[in-house]
Amino acid sequence: MQAETLSGGFADPAIQSAQAFRGVMEAMARPGTVRSISGATPPAPLSGAAGTVLLTLCDPDTPVYLAGEADCDAVRGWLAFHTGAPLAGPSHCMFAVGTWDQLNPLSVYKIGTPEYPDRSATLIVECTELTGSGACLKGPGIKTSSALSVPEVQAFQHNTALFPLGLDFILTCGNTVAALPRSTRVSEADGATEVSSCTLP
Amino acid sequence: MTQYNFAYLDEQTKRMIRRAILKGLAIPGYQVPFASREMPMPYGWGTGGVQVSAAILTPEDRFKVIDQGADDTTNAVSIRTFFERTAGVATTTATSDASVIQTRHRIPEEPLTEKQILVYQVPIPEPLRFLEPRESETRKMHALEEYGLMHVKLYEDISRHGHIATSYAYPVTVEGRFVMDPSPIPKFDNPKLGDMAAIQLFGAGREQRIYALPPYTKVVSLDFDDHPFEASKADHPCGLCGAEESYLDEVIIDDAGGRMFVCSDTDYCERRQAAGHVGKLGGKDAA
Ligand SMILES: [Zn+2]
């Protein structure tokens, strides 16, 4: 067992996971807002935010798919030690983590059923940048419109067309997090989108 | 360290509830099943709301609990004390000072802000339950958007009473998709559900359901072209503070059966009185 397997978890799990959850919840409730979350120091290549989301939401009840480079011994050992989450392939996971390219194709993940649309995967997308600018977002949680740097537009449009089925996305970069639930309508920037700060609490 | 888990529930239970809350926010108005836990209080005391509050509270929060608008009922005081002890949160009765408000049967009069979260205690989350007792069938009806029977039921009200008699738990359509029970708030409060700046979370303990309205969600009360929805209230000003626009309770004020109408939102009423507003009976002791 590597030393980093044992380290990098929450020092005070109950409090730090509560605080991190509020950040993730606010992000999911207000698509386009970018928030800081902290607490976990996972092994590379995971970002602090992705590690914090995993520790906050995953446990033995949630199969996790490690995509691409995230599927390494260091991450496997760390996730198992700190969450007990079993590993799974993309078609059986509740959570997946990786870069956009590594997570694709999206068609293999669970999108829920008509009676239980909540039984769908949540994808944690590691991004090289995460700012409140770029594609235009509209829908629940957004007063008029908001903006977010997204890896691409069309995939989210396809996902939204599945509503109420579909995938939900948590975007991570460094210690920041944003979210794109299936309810958000994403379109190419119309030039009038505003830039929101990356460091909101 | 205290002898309790933070906010009473163990970490695995809170994670399960947190995952349900996120799915609820992603599918506004849809009822997410969750494995409700026994809480150290009876079901009628809002154990669904308590579990949602337990999953979202942080030590930085300031928590308010209202029971039909009042902060001082046994139920409200018990829940407030419960989280003071188990989560170490500060509490308040002032709507504007609270970051999380748990409520039974009311939405505060004062508009909520983007910094606030409203948690509803829900007894019966399924708006179609009285039409169809089987969960498997109501699930199908929601899946297929089969809401015709709901409209028939409301229209029967009109033919029987000349108006829609349903005055509490008046059903709404969320973002043009899911029909949702807003919990037994008076229909006077329905217009506040939509376009609210705060996050709204709904927890039903006995029925094991969580659902949610993200901020600025489109929420429409069911109605008909010839009978549009009306957010009605008693046609009086508040006897204590003179408010014309607030939701009122009728209370008995003396042994002779004298009655008066007063704001159901006690914090709102007290603030108005403190600011110098006086109703017709404002000088009398209404306790
Ligand atoms: Zn009043």
Written overview of the protein:
The complex is a heterodimer of chains A (201) and B (287). With 201 residues, chain A is of the alpha/beta class. Chain A has one domain: Bacterial phosphonate metabolism protein PhnH (Rossmann fold). In chain A, 27% of the residues lie in helices and 18% in strands. Chain A has six helices and nine strands. In chain A, the strands form two sheets. Chain A has a six-stranded mixed sheet with strand order 1-8-7-4-3-2. A three-stranded antiparallel sheet of chain A has the order 6-5-9. In chain A, helix 2 crosses helix 3. The radius of gyration of chain A is 16 Å and the shape is globular. Chain B has 287 residues and is an alpha/beta fold. Chain B folds into two domains: 211 residues, Bacterial phosphonate metabolism protein PhnH (Rossmann fold, 3-Layer(aba) Sandwich), CATH 3.40.50; 47 residues, no CATH class. Chain B is 26% helix and 17% strand. Chain B has seven helices and twelve strands. In chain B, strands 1-9-8-5-4-2-3 form a seven-stranded mixed sheet. A three-stranded antiparallel sheet of chain B has the order 7-6-10. Chain B has a two-stranded antiparallel sheet with strand order 11-12. In chain B, helix 1 crosses helix 2. The model of chain B has no long low-confidence stretch (mean pLDDT 93). Chains A and B meet through helix 2 of A and helix 1, strand 1 and helix 4 of B. The site of zinc ion (ZN) has 9 residues of chain B, from strand 12 and helix 7. Chain B: Belongs to the PhnJ family. Chain B: Pfam families: PhnJ (PF06007). Chain B: It catalyses: alpha-D-ribose 1-methylphosphonate 5-phosphate + AH2 + S-adenosyl-L-methionine = alpha-D-ribose 1,2-cyclic phosphate 5-phosphate + methane + 5'-deoxyadenosine + L-methionine + A + H(+). Chain B: Catalyzes the breakage of the C-P bond in alpha-D-ribose 1-methylphosphonate 5-phosphate (PRPn) forming alpha-D-ribose. Chain B: Its EC number is 4.7.1.1.
